[in-house]
Amino acid sequence: MTRTAVLVIDMIREFCDPENGLVYIQNADRIVPPLHEFVTEARAAGILIIWIIDQHRPNKPDFELDRVRFHCTEGSPGVELMPPLQALAEDYVVTKSRYSAFFATDLDLILRNEQVNRLVLTGTKTNVCVRAAAQDAFARNYDLLIPRELVTTDRENLHRANLEDMERYFGRVLPAAEVLALLREESTLTATAQHA
Fold this sequence. Notes:
Blueprint: E1 4-9, H1 13-16, H2 32-44, E2 48-54, E3 92-96, H3 107-113, E4 118-124, H4 126-139, E5 143-147, E6 151-152, H5 156-169, E7 172-174, H6 176-194
Parallel strand pairs: 1-2, 1-4, 2-3, 4-5, 4-6, 5-7
């Protein structure tokens, strides 16, 4: 039986707030409303939601921050989810300090405990953190769905190339409406199995 979780990757103020984000990613704020709607509908269908948040310790050595612009300090407003996105009590929140949501986190353990075998990847950036999560998820045998309109980055050529690459090597890139239909189908099958 299929059990799905939606990963919402780095949809935080640092990347999505055009006025206050230290490393605002052009277009990231545009996917917030449709992503909020998608998460609300997926959650209503009984799909597990996992929020992935990039976070770095202040004033400590950090291999990633040696290579990219300073961002996402633990405890700062920058690591808060971009409104109206909000983690509820039944959701999980996983913090990371590298590009992949799997590296040095308990994400895989959470997914195994929840008996998840399929992931929906959403968020930013298509060519960095989403791509890194896709590669690591594939290596751990998770089936992957990537809603085309719910991932973004600041360079259209990299966005398109990485979507094409992820579809070729890691999973299926589909319209968000098709992904939602699959999640509703899963919910119906689960409910039927429980009442059989």
